[in-house]
Design a protein that fits this description.
Number of domains: 2
CATH class of the largest domain: Alpha Beta
Strand content: 15-25%
Order of helices and strands: HEHEHEHEEHEHEHEHEEHHEH
Keywords: Signal
Number of strands: 11
InterPro entries: BUG, Bug_dom1
CATH architecture of the largest domain: 3-Layer(aba) Sandwich
Helix content: 40-55%
Protein name: ABC transporter substrate-binding protein
Distance between the termini: 67 Å
Organism: Bordetella genomosp. 2
Family: Belongs to the UPF0065 (bug) family.
CATH topology of the largest domain: D-Maltodextrin-Binding Protein, domain 2
Radius of gyration: 23 Å
Strand order of the largest sheet: 2-1-3-10-4-11
Structural class: alpha/beta
Number of helices: 11
């Protein structure tokens, strides 16, 4: 048999083999899921992110034939868990509960795992930053607060959840927009910062409304402005920065993402199930009880948010020299 005849005989075999290989992922996607799905939370158990992951897992039971198992993989400000998921097989069986930290910590030098190594599935939450002071503070408006910070640069002590945290970046962004200069005081989380404010040790905090709402309702703290596009539930009398002619909207978010390369049919299955789970009354009740902003966005919108925030935080971290 000459070479040309041999190639003619071999070609159908090769094409048939390629068709079989291409059919394997398609068949796997059609059977998805055939066993439990791991949802990695890159933080310790017991926090708000962990609680939301577990609430979402419970709400998903009615919409997926297999359970979602929540696993906590803390460390490196979320970098360890995110890296594990990013390097896992992209088959839909290992997902990540992602937060705004995923577009912050690479620029801080804490991980090489960037948001581009994931495909977003669904956004579930968004919480803006807010400037909150003690109830007896002399500042009753955001303008008075900023004027005082400009008058005495770096004397206004503003607490945050740690160097390079979303709330540190929010306060830095406010400086950048207004010309104010704060003395940034880092704490090991938003709650310790709020407790320091209650104790009179600092002048203000830049944390989410959810982290101060109980003290605002109790008359111990007052929020001067929220860094959101619209006023926040529970803070209807508090203006946004944009209402005060400061074009700044910044905050944190949470959602679910898969490793890059996950087949689109698998992503579609997960996305449809998660949208139904997000509409469950049990999840909405949980979000309301935890004072978490309930925002549902699909793959395309969530990707756009990540791209926007990645550019914003990269610029702020470089400008303020926060890289560790």
């Amino acid at each position: 048999m000459n070479r040309r005849a041999f190639n003619r005989c071999l070609l159908p075999v090769l094409l048939g083999g390629a068709a079989v290989l291409a059919a394997v992922p398609a068949a796997q996607a059609a059977d998805f899921p055939s066993h439990s799905i791991e949802l990695v939370v890159p933080f310790a158990a017991g926090g708000g992110t962990d609680a939301m992951a577990r609430a979402m897992s419970d709400a998903s039971r009615a919409h997926l034939p297999e359970p979602i198992v929540v696993l906590n993989k803390p460390g490196a400000a979320g970098g360890i868990g995110l890296t594990e998921v990013a390097n896992s097989k992209p088959d839909g069986y290992k997902l990540a509960l992602v937060t705004a930290d995923m577009v912050i910590i690479p620029h801080l030098g804490l991980t090489k795992t960037t948001y581009e190594k994931f495909t977003p599935i669904i956004q579930l939450n968004a919480d803006p930053s807010a400037i909150t002071v003690a109830a007896d503070s002399p500042y009753n408006t955001i303008e008075e607060f900023l004027d005082a910070a400009r008058a005495k640069p770096e004397m206004m002590q503003v607490g945050n959840a740690g160097i390079g945290s979303i709330w540190h970046l929010a306060a830095a962004a406010l400086e950048d927009k207004t010309g104010a200069k704060f003395n940034h005081i880092p704490f090991n989380g938003g709650n310790p910062a709020v407790l320091a404010l209650l104790g009179g040790h600092i002048d203000a905090v830049a944390v989410s409304p959810a982290e101060v709402i109980q003290y605002v309702k109790a008359g111990k703290l007052k929020t001067l402005a929220v860094m959101a596009d619209q006023r926040v539930a529970g803070f209807e009398n508090v203006p946004t920065l944009k209402e005060r002619n400061i074009d700044l909207s910044i905050g944190t978010w949470r959602g679910i993402a898969a490793p890059q390369g996950t087949p689109q049919p698998v992503l579609d299955t997960l996305g449809a199930a998660f949208r139904k789970a997000a509409a469950e009354d049990s999840l909405k009740k949980f979000m309301a009880e935890q004072n978490l902003g309930y925002v549902v966005a699909d793959q395309r919108a969530f990707t756009a948010l990540m791209e926007r925030d990645n550019a914003t935080f990269k610029s702020l971290i470089e400008k303020f020299g926060m890289r560790q």
